[in-house]
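Possible regression after last week's pipeline update?

I re-ran a chain I had predicted before the update to compare outputs. Posting the input and the new output here so someone can diff against the archived version. Not blocking, just want to make sure nothing changed silently.
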Amino acid sequence: MSVCRDPFGRVIDYLRVSVTDRCNLRCVYCTPMERIPRRTHHEILRYEEIVRVVEAAGMLGLRKIRLTGGEPLVRLGLVELVRALARIPGIQEISLTTNGMLLDKFAEPLADAGLARVNVSLDTLQPDRFERITRGGRIDQVWRGIEAAERAGLTPIKLNAVVIRSLNDDELAAFARLTSDRPWNVRFIELMPIANQDDWGAGFPAPSERFVPVAEMRERVASAGELVAADSPRGNGPAQICRLAGAVGTLGFISAISQHFCAHCNRLRLTADGWLRPCLLHEGEVNLKAALRDGADVTRIQALITSAVLAKPKDHELPEHGLPPGRRMTTIGG
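New output (post-update):
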């Protein structure tokens, strides 16, 4: 079995694929107040092109695929993409990150097609606050999606909450209590400075006031009960895992900024418009779309993927170089 390593000895076996830059929500930390132009259908990778990339990646030793967006479920035909990816030799797991708004409709067909599990982005448990953060979303639709995912066996269910001071940082204990009698993994994520340092509108915190480090998150969660060590659930990635004493589920803390986990990074990111990024927080990219549309064979695609792996930086260097310019998260895929 092939193994893909970067210059620092890290095994690269995980590819995140953004299938669209479109979304049915407009979360304040992801989308600016003003409307931004979306890429045309021609600019976005076709499904057959994504399949070609994943086939080449599988031959190199990448084993896990995560589909992201934007919101991946707004793109037509996603179930058939999952079915095609599930047939590729070497690919061991396909997962999905979603806001959950359409999950009740797609959970069962996605599971039948070969999807293994889902992560649901959920930044608040309060309906009014959810509508405000997402600029119009309905939290009841998300809960229906989570229930449908459980029925379909897309487990373990993970809930991803981006923690923002003066917006949702007062809910950490409530999130933690969700795991008391549910086998879920609630993950608290530091806000990453990816093209979101602008004004979010009236009543939202200023850029300098938004960040909450993981160390402070843990203190707030501890008010819900004693935190004890826990085994990492399948596909946990970079999260530091624990649980409330006696809880069925687990808690994860993702400290991308304050205590970065770059030394253990195992991933590449394919953007919706066909560029391969070695690092989320670096601007370096490899143009796969141009090669795909120029008729490149699998050997050429593998060479381009390998070049991205070899360009993977040791770490994101944010303290030294400041905020990353350029893309928004909707095209990178997180």
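Follow-up from reviewer: compared with the archived run. The first strand starts at residue 14 and ends at 18. Marking as no regression found.
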